[in-house]
Write a structure and sequence with these properties.
Blueprint: H1 2-28, E1 31-36, E2 38-54, E3 57-61, E4 66-71, E5 78-79, E6 84-88, H2 91-133, H3 139-178, E7 181-183, E8 188-193, E9 200-201, E10 209-214, E11 219-227, H4 228-231, E12 239-244, E13 247-266, E14 269-279, E15 290-307, H5 308-312, H6 317-330, E16 342-347, E17 350-355, E18 357-361, E19 365-370, E20 378-384, E21 390-391
Antiparallel strand pairs: 1-20, 2-11, 2-15, 3-10, 4-6, 4-9, 5-8, 6-7, 8-10, 11-14, 12-13, 12-15, 13-14, 15-19, 16-17, 18-19, 20-21
Helix pairs in contact: 2-3
Length: about 400
């Protein structure tokens, strides 16, 4: 009986030790965080920021100086082409028109006087010619009469020139008077008003800006700045997505209409302006808004893609050495190597390194061009140490990247 008790106690002790070591080995096994390889669409983009503006913004100024008498529009006022939007005090210009009209009347009267003098001189010349032919007057008197006729003819031409000069002066005065009426040159919306009633504007050296009118706010453009490293991928006609802070939940779409070749250098950073046309039928976009732009430079549909975190993941050296030992014991090769681009796949709780060739990337996922990766494969993206904390041996890359 005593012997059976000793044997039972020994068996229980052995069983306890076996269970302890089994649990210890299970707890000491490495644990990983995984994500799935999926199939879907992917797009590579170039990001930048830009400013929204109307496609056509007309600056309205004045060609004459004076005091603003009346203003008929304000900010956000819709206007039509030819509509009166402001009036400069016309009193001085009306007086100049009246003065020019009087000068024209005087010039026309002088022309009539000159023509009458010419007729009188021609009559005298006819009389002196008859008398000279009969030797009743001296040759000098006949020559004087002839000279008077030529002088009268010249005076008529001068009077006609004065009439034309007065007509031109009147036309200038009338144009200046018409310019006191500030009219809208296009159909649109008043974006800014820079004058008030009673303000004096001087157009002597530089045309003052009175109003800025956006021609059509249903069609807008984004002027974005793209750095020189990315400008080679941007082409006319590419699709664009962008957001604005005023409508964070909305994604607006547009197309690249122009890539300007003029460089802009600020603090040794070279950028190029890219013009993006945008439809704005609901007027949600307003001039001056800042747009966060993504220019779609390439896209693919229905491809196998993997998380970038799986590509960045680097297996800890201790785990790699353990896997190499297991490979050696099992007579396997190439499962736990470290060279080249590869993914770690968790198969039956065992990590397996699979070499791959990557393609397009959108910053979150990357296309897999070749490699033994199947849709739904468990890709290792993180390693949990024995304490349960995640380790990552390579910092994540920020921003989109093209391969």
């Amino acid at each position: 009986m005593k012997r059976k008790l000793i044997i039972g106690t020994a068996l229980l002790l052995v069983l306890t030790i076996a269970i302890y070591f089994a649990l210890s080995n299970r707890d000491s096994a490495p644990k990983f965080r995984t994500q799935k390889a999926i199939r879907g669409d992917i797009s590579a983009s170039v990001t930048s920021t830009g400013t929204l503006s109307a496609v056509t913004t007309v600056t309205v100024g004045t060609q004459v100086s004076g005091t603003i008498k009346s203003i008929y529009v304000d900010f956000n006022s819709p206007v039509k082409k030819g509509q009166l939007i402001a009036q400069i005090d016309p009193d001085i210009f009306e007086a100049q028109v009246n003065q020019s009209k009087a000068n024209l009347s005087l010039a026309r009267a002088n022309l009539l006087k000159s023509e009458a003098s010419l007729v009188d001189a021609e009559r005298n010349l006819s009389r002196y010619k008859l008398l000279f032919e009969k030797d009743l007057v001296a040759k000098s008197e006949y020559d004087t009469a002839l000279t008077n006729v030529e002088t009268a003819r010249a005076q008529v031409l001068a009077s006609k020139a004065q009439v034309e000069q007065s007509m031109a002066a009147l036309r200038i005065a009338e144009i200046n008077l018409a310019h006191t009426r500030i009219e809208s040159p296009v159909d649109g919306v008043v974006v800014s008003r820079n004058v008030d009633v009673g303000q004096t504007v001087a157009a002597s050296f530089q045309t003052p800006t009175l109003f800025s009118i956006a021609q059509d706010l249903t069609k807008m453009q984004v002027i974005s700045s793209v750095v020189e490293a990315d400008i080679g991928s941007v082409q006319k006609g590419q699709s664009v997505e962008f957001t604005v802070d005023a409508h964070r939940e909305l994604v607006f779409k547009g197309k690249v209409s122009e890539v300007r070749i003029a460089p802009i250098t600020v603090q040794n950073v070279v950028t190029y302006e890219v013009i993006i046309l945008v439809d704005n039928p609901e007027h949600k976009l307003k001039p001056g808004m800042t747009a966060n732009v993504s220019i779609i430079v390439d896209s693919k549909q229905d491809i196998l893609k993997v998380p970038n975190a799986a590509i960045r993941f680097r297996m800890p050296e201790s785990v790699v050495q353990s896997l190499k030992q297991q490979d050696a014991q099992q007579g396997q090769r190439g499962q736990s190597g470290t060279g080249g681009s590869a993914l770690w796949v968790l198969e039956e709780d065992t990590p397996k390194r699979i070499p791959i060739k990557t393609g397009l990337s959108d910053g979150q996922f990357t296309e897999v061009l070749s490699g033994d990766i199947k849709e739904g494969a468990n890709l290792i993206v993180g390693y949990l140490s024995k304490r349960g904390s995640q380790t990552q041996t390579r910092p994540p890359q920020s921003g989109p990247r093209m391969f």
